[in-house]
Amino acid sequence: MATTPTAKPSTFIQEKRRQQLVDATITVLAETGVAGATFVAIAARAGVSRGVINYHFADRAALLDAVVVHIYSLGRDEVESSVRSASSPAAAIRAMITGSIAFYARHIHERIALSAIYRSDDVDTVGRGDRGEHSAEMAKLTAILRRGQRAREFRRFDVDVMAASIRAVLDSAIGQLAGGADPARLGREIGNLFDAATRSETP
Q1: Cβ-based neighbour number of residue 60 at 10 Å
Q2: Which residues form the HTH tetR-type domain (predicted)?
């Protein structure tokens, strides 16, 4: 006699639960840093047992990895379209800067959590330099800078140094936003800064 297979939870339900755990982890990371982001703390924040986390994630490293993947995905969804549709390399750089600042302001806990992961030397974290998402982000930025130089819209400079400088200033903006800085003003000022830094020296 044939047996009826046990029904498995739907993918939708599983994904909703995974996202709940990722969101809870982000909150704990933003409040306590990586050291405080234990399964016990995350389970308490999510209102579930530790076993629920173990069911959805192989280990703490996998959960922290899911947090990073989620935050980069949010950023791509909210920022990249305006960068791609920009009318020039200079406009693309400004769109990337102002869009990033606006994104950070809307998702400040996510950005604080990501910074906490990248600052940590915890065995369960991976440094930013080893993340493919970061490498892809920087490659897109340097490509825009090179395109601007080829079009003679930008002056000659080391594109890797300039890209790293943009990244560093954007990183520093997270603390300012967390302290209550106005995102529109901050984005405008940083945009003006790098417009002056990259602009062609010939009329």
Answers
A1: 19
A2: 15-75
The 10 Å Cβ neighbour count of residue 10 is 9
* Cβ–Cβ under 8 Å, residues 118 and 34: no
Q: Are 37 and 64 in contact (CB under 8 A)?
A: yes
| Tokens 């308490």 belong to residue | 44
8 Å CB contact between 68 and 117: yes
Residue 28 C-alpha from the chain's centroid: 17
* pLDDT tens digits along 57-100: 999 999 999 999 999 999 999 999 999 999 999 999 999 999 99
- Taking the CA of residue 114 as centre, how many other CA atoms within 13 Å lie in the half-sphere pointing to its CB? 23
Q: How many whole angstroms separate alpha carbon 94 and alpha carbon 115?
A: 23
**Torsion sign (Cα): 71, 28, 168, 124:** negative
Class of domain 65-198: mainly alpha
